[in-house]
Amino acid sequence: MQSSRSKPCSCPSLKLREVASMYFTMVAAFLVILVVALQGSAPRQSDFPYKVPLDPQGLLELSWNVSYPEQAVHFQLLIRELQFGLLFGMSDRGEFENADLAVLWSDGHNSYFGDAWSDAKGQLHMDSQQDYQLLGARRAPEGLYLLFRRAFSTCDPKDYLIEDGTVHLIYGILEKPVRSLQAINISALHGGLQRVQLLKPNISIPELPRDMKTMEITAPDVVIPSQETTYWCYMAELPEGFPKHHIIMYEPVVTAGNEALVHHMEVFQCAAQFDSFPRYNGPCDSKMKPDRLNYCRHVLAAWAMGAQAFYYPEEAGLAFGGPGSSRYLRLEIHYHNPLVFKGRRDSSGIRLYYTATLRPYDAGIMELGLVYTPVMAIPPGEDSFVLTGYCTDKCTQLALPAAGIRIFASQLHTHLAGRKVVTVLSRDGRERQVVNADGHYSPHFQEIRMLKEVVAVFPGDELITTCTYNTEDRSRATVGGFGILEEMCVNYVHYYPQTQLELCKSAVDPGYLHRYFNLVNRFNDEEICMCPQVSVPQQFYSIPWNTFNRDVLKSLYGFAPISMHCNKSSAVRFPGEWEKQPLPSITERLREPGPRCPPAPGPQPAAPAPLPLGQLRR
Amino acid sequence: MQSSRSKPCSCPSLKLREVASMYFTMVAAFLVILVVALQGSAPRQSDFPYKVPLDPQGLLELSWNVSYPEQAVHFQLLIRELQFGLLFGMSDRGEFENADLAVLWSDGHNSYFGDAWSDAKGQLHMDSQQDYQLLGARRAPEGLYLLFRRAFSTCDPKDYLIEDGTVHLIYGILEKPVRSLQAINISALHGGLQRVQLLKPNISIPELPRDMKTMEITAPDVVIPSQETTYWCYMAELPEGFPKHHIIMYEPVVTAGNEALVHHMEVFQCAAQFDSFPRYNGPCDSKMKPDRLNYCRHVLAAWAMGAQAFYYPEEAGLAFGGPGSSRYLRLEIHYHNPLVFKGRRDSSGIRLYYTATLRPYDAGIMELGLVYTPVMAIPPGEDSFVLTGYCTDKCTQLALPAAGIRIFASQLHTHLAGRKVVTVLSRDGRERQVVNADGHYSPHFQEIRMLKEVVAVFPGDELITTCTYNTEDRSRATVGGFGILEEMCVNYVHYYPQTQLELCKSAVDPGYLHRYFNLVNRFNDEEICMCPQVSVPQQFYSIPWNTFNRDVLKSLYGFAPISMHCNKSSAVRFPGEWEKQPLPSITERLREPGPRCPPAPGPQPAAPAPLPLGQLRR
C-alpha cells in the first residue's frame, strides 16, 4: 500500500552514481561548447549594454546585461593580463568575508572555474550549489573573456541576493598558482571593490526631437591631482540671453583612458539671486575657491560610474535658461585615484541634450526625508539605527495638484553613517509601493536612478523615508546637520509636473525631545538638567548611552508628534499649522518580497488529480 | 559566443508541451498505482505509529509516521462516513484562513484530490506547487483510507512549514457535491481543529527490566458530564509502606470509544507534609472537592491526545514511594465533549511501569522561566509581546554538579495569552542550543515532550526562556500571577541526576519598575504617583497605554537588573546575593534555521569545472 509514486522529475533523488556519470557527461559537453565558444565571433556590444572597470588600472572590465524575464544577469568579464586566475563576486558592503564568489584558478597546469563562498574568516569553500554558470571563455588580443550567468535569487543561503540598488562587487587577482580553491589566501590577494547598480531599469527610450542640441559641460584640461580623492570644481556659463529650454537627456563624457578614475560627476545650477559668479577651475576644497560657488547647489545632472545616459520621460524636461534662472553652472568631478597616478590629463564632464521645443511639463525636484536638525540623532555604537522622515497627507493635500505628480527618478542621500535608504508611498494608512530602496546604500555612490516604475502621488498620500545608520566606530552621538560627521536622510525625487512644493520633511517635536532628556536624566540617577542654555547636540553628547537610553530614544521617535517642513522653498512654508503634527499611522505594511527561488521540482503540475473512485457517496 | 550550455537536468526549463505530456503520463502511472493500492492489504499498524481522532465523533482518524531522513510526514487518513469529500490541512493556530490544505472533492460524478490554500478571506485556491502528494486511496469496510505525503518544508510560500512543537490540524467535511475547488465555501463547512505534535522524536526505546510491574491509576466508572469542558479529579493511593521505586515508563489507558473525548490526563503526587488525604472522585471545580487536594501538584506523569508512551532514559527513573514522599496521588482528566454527549461512561487513566531495581539516577523536574509576580506584565492590545525569564550562570554555578545534568524532556506552560515558548541554552554569552521550542504553542495542549536530543547543562550555563503573548482581546494589562487571566512563563524540564535546584527563575527588579511608573507618569503629563500603597497590578492597570509606554516597558525588561529565584524548594533560596543581578548578556545568537528547501535543480554538481585553457599565464 505504501508504494511511493514515481516522481515526474528525477532530479532531487539522483543517486550518487548517476550524479557522477552525469558529471562526466557534462564535462564532455562542456568542452564541446567551449570549443564552439572559442571559435565564435567577438561578443556584440549591444549584448552587454552596461560596462564598468573593476580596478583602478582598468585591467578588469565588467560588462553585463539584465534579463527580467529570466530573472538573471549575464556577465562578461574581460581580464587584460591574466596571471593565475581571479575572484569575482558580491558581498553585503564590499568585504571579502561572507562573500559570494566566482573563482577562476590555475594549479599551473589546468584551469578551473567554480562557484564559491567565503566564510566569516575569509576562508574559501566550494559552493554545494553552483549558481555562477560558466557559459564560455575566449581568448582575444585584448585578454581573456569569461562569460557567465547568475540568477538574481538562488535560494542558496551561501549566495548573495541580487536586488535593486547598489551592489558591492569585489575582485581579487591570483598572482601565483594554487593547488585548490581552499588554498587561496584571501588576505594576501591584490583586490578591491567596485559599486554598481546591477539591476538597471528596463526603460524604453523616449523619441528625441529633431531640434535637439547638445552642450558639453566639461572641465578643460585638468591634471588629475596625484592623491586618492579629489573633488574638482569648474564653473561654466550659458550664453547671455539664453532662453528657457528643456534638458531631455544627458550622458557622461569621459576622457579615454580615465574610465577607472572618474568616479562621479554632477552639474549644479547657481542661485538666481546673484547676477554673476567668478570663473574657477580647481579643487573644490582649495582655499582659492571663491565662496560664492557654495551658492551653486541646484542639481541639473548627475552621473556615477556604471550609469548610462539619463532620459527624461517624454512628457517632461528639466527647465534651464530663461529669466529667473542663473546662467552659471558648476561642474563637480570626483576623481578616485588610489594608485596615485601622476600627470594624468582629463577633460571629462557631462553632455546635455536640450530642446527649445518645450515639452508639456517642467520636471521638478522635491526633497523628502528629515529636516537638517540636531533633534534627530543616532546613538554611538549602533550597527543599524533607523530614523524616519515623513511627508504627511496634510502637506500633499495642500501642495499637490488633484491629478497628482509622477516620480520618475530618485537620488538617495545621507552622510557617512548611512547604510540603507528607502521611501515608501502610503495611502489611507496602507503602504502601497516602494518609491526607491537601496538595502546596500553607500554614501560614496549617490546616483540619480531612473525608477523601474513611475510612481503616481496624489493629494493625501504620504511619503515615508527611512534611513539606517551604522555608528559602531563612533563614541558619541551623531546628530542631524550639514557637517560631514553629522547626518542627513534625504531622497531627492525627480517628478513632473513641477509644483511649488520643494521640501516635504519632518523632525521630532523639540518639546517631546526635551521630555526625553529629562526622563533619561532621572532614570539614570544623573543630576536633573533643565538647563535650556545647553544645546541639543550637547545634551545628546552628555547622555550615558546604554540599551535603555537607546531604546527609549527609538520609542520616542516612533511615538512623539513631529514638526513638518512643508515648504515652497527651503525657508517658506505653505500656510497652515505644522508643529506637533501626529505621526502618520500605518495599519498595513508592504510585505518584504520573499526571495524568488527557481521552482523546486514539484511532485506534480498544479492541476487536480482525478481519482478512480467514482462517486464518493455510496 | 553566448551559446548557453546544456543543463544537466532539464526540469527548470521544461517547455509547456513537455509538461503537458508528462502530466498525462503521470496520470496514467497514477491510475496503475491506485489500482495496486486498491488491491493491497490493510496498512500495518507499525507503518503509522501515531494516531489521533480529528473530530469529536471520531469519524476522521489520522495516523502518521515521520521520516527524518526524507524530511517528510506520511499521513493515513481514515474517513468513516465519506460524503462529498473533505479538507485536511494545517494553519498557524487552527484558523481556516491562510491555511495549507489537502482537498478531496467530488462533483457528484468524479472525485479529485489536490493541494490547495485558503487566502485571508477563506477563499480556496489550487496551489501552483502540489506538495501534498497522494500515494494511494483504498476502500475498506470501516471507510476510505487516503494515503499522502508531505515534506516538512516545501519553500512554497503558500505552504505551512512543519516544525517541532504543536501543529494545528484542521478538517472540514463536504456535505454536498461541488463543481470545483474554488466553489467550496469554507464558512459553511462542518469542521474543526485538532492539535498534535506531528514531529515526534525518533527515540530508541530503552530496554525494560524483567522485574517491571505496572499500576493503573484510572478513574473508576466516571459518567462524563454532558458539558464541553470537564476537569475530573480522582484520588488514588499507594499501598502502605510502599518502598521507593523508579517509574521508568507510563502510557495512557483510554476507554474504547472515548478516544475523541479524553483530551489530556495528569497524575500528581501529593505533598508529604500531610499524613493523609481524603478520597475523591468528581469534578475538580466542584464545591464538594476537599481543599487539601490543592496540595497534590507534583507531576508524576502527563499525557495529552496524540502522545504515546513516555520512557525515561535508561540511566534514570522517577522516584515514587518510600519515606519522605506522600502515598497519595491525584489523577486529573480533561474531558473535551463539545457535542455534549450524555451518559458516556469512562475509566481512563494512566498505566505506570515501575521497578524496584533502582536505576543509577533519580530524575528531577526543574522550573525555568519567570517568577509568578505581577512585576512582569503585558500591555493590552498586543499581538506578540515577549517576556523573558533567566536561569543565570551564577545559579547554575552554585547548584549544578560539575558533571552537569541531562535534560531529556520538557513541558512548556503559560496561561491563556501564551502563543510561543522557547528555552535556549547559552554558554559564555553565546547561545548554543534550543532546549525546547514551540512556535505554535497553545495553552490548551501542554504535553510533556521527549526532546529529540538530550541537552547537557553544566555549571555556569544560562537557560533563557522566552514567552510570546497575545492580548489583543484584553483592555487592561495582564500581570504575572497564578490566576487564569494572569500569566506565567514556565518550562518544566525533566532531567537527571536530580539536584537540589527546583526553581531557577527571574523577574525584573521592583525598584527599576518603580522608576518606570514614575517616568511614564511624568512623560504623559499625569499626576505623579509616588504612592507606595498602590499595588503593582493597580499601577499597571492605571497606565494610559500607547506605543511609547509599551515600548519603554519593553526597553525596561531588556535593560533593568533582575531578581533571581535560585531555589532549593519554592521558598528556600540557595545562599548568595540574588537581588539586582545583571541580565545575562548574549553576544552571539543562534541563527534561525532557514527553511530547508528541496534542492533546486542545480546547474552543475558542486565540483570545479576544468577549463580547456591550459596554463593561464602566457
UniProtKB/TrEMBL annotation, chains A, B:
PANTHER family: DOPAMINE BETA HYDROXYLASE RELATED (PTHR10157), DOPAMINE BETA-HYDROXYLASE (PTHR10157:SF29). SUPFAM superfamilies: PHM/PNGase F. It is found in: Cytoplasmic vesicle, Secretory vesicle, Chromaffin granule lumen; Cytoplasmic vesicle, Secretory vesicle, Chromaffin granule membrane. InterPro entries: Cu2_ascorb_mOase-like_C, Cu2_ascorb_mOase_CS-1, Cu2_ascorb_mOase_N, Cu2_ascorb_mOase_N_sf, Cu2_monoox_C, DBH-like, DOH_DOMON, DOMON_domain. Homotetramer; composed of two disulfide-linked dimers. Pathway: Catecholamine biosynthesis; (R)-noradrenaline biosynthesis; (R)-noradrenaline from dopamine: step 1/1. One of its GO terms (molecular function) is dopamine beta-monooxygenase activity. One of its GO terms (cellular component) is chromaffin granule membrane. It comes from the Eukaryota. This is Dopamine beta-hydroxylase. CDD domains: DOMON_DOH. Its EC number is 1.14.17.1. GO terms for biological process: dopamine catabolic process; norepinephrine biosynthetic process; octopamine biosynthetic process. Keywords: Catecholamine biosynthesis, Copper, Cytoplasmic vesicle, Disulfide bond, Glycoprotein, Membrane, Metal-binding, Monooxygenase, Oxidoreductase, Signal-anchor, Transmembrane, Transmembrane helix, Vitamin C. The keyword Kinase does not apply. Belongs to the copper type II ascorbate-dependent monooxygenase family. Pfam families: Cu2_monoox_C, Cu2_monooxygen, DOMON. Its cofactor is Cu(2+). Its main location: cytoplasm. Catalyzes the hydroxylation of dopamine to noradrenaline (also known as norepinephrine), and is thus vital for regulation of these neurotransmitters.
